Amino acid sequence: MLKVDDLHVYYNAIQALNGLSFTVGRGEMVTLLGANGAGKTTTLKTISALLRPRSGRIELEGQPLEDLPPHEIVRLGVAHVPEGRRVFPRLSVMENLKTGAYTRHGGTIADDIERAFTLFPRLKERMQQKAGTLSGGEQQMLAIGRGLMARPRLLLLDEPSMGLAPILVEQIFSTIQAINKEGVTVLLVEQNAAMALAICHRGYVIETGKIILSGTAAELSGNDRVRQAYLGG
Question: How far apart are CA 40 and CA 50, in angstroms?
Fold first, then answer.
């Protein structure tokens, strides 16, 4: 479904991605693992056109993405839930959800709002509350719900567990699994490598802007290098 081929991305003179290549199949849930600064967030931003590659190819089911503006990529079925949630703090929960459907024309979004409330019942309880007053976990639920309002085929998730209590992390990851089982392909960036490998089908390890390891979740979980670097030995 998604093919990233020989991607080179720079921040001014500093190279962030150095020939990055990987694939995500339709219906898969794939994780990108790596230390801070390895290039994981840069990868997601480049796929969603928040950054432009200096060279390389990004294709969604054969269609090139690297020259398209962000809103066109959303229309093609790619939704990006960024690191740090980035909800609109002065808008209500309901208003935030509606912004996620801004690229859609015609039809109703009522079913999609109800889907978000089914996945995250707490959002329904707070639908008129300003997003900036929600807890961190509630904001993460809202960010994911807003992303789903675009009816994506591919969902990019950047550090969904960051700053959350363990019980909320389990809830968020359980919901991500449910979203994937509904048919949404997921590309997950996550510092909690154990949780990511527990729910994903495959994974890639990024180091200094390039892939150094890849395999099934089971293969990576059993790899000594991965265990020592990301799984606590």
Answer: 14
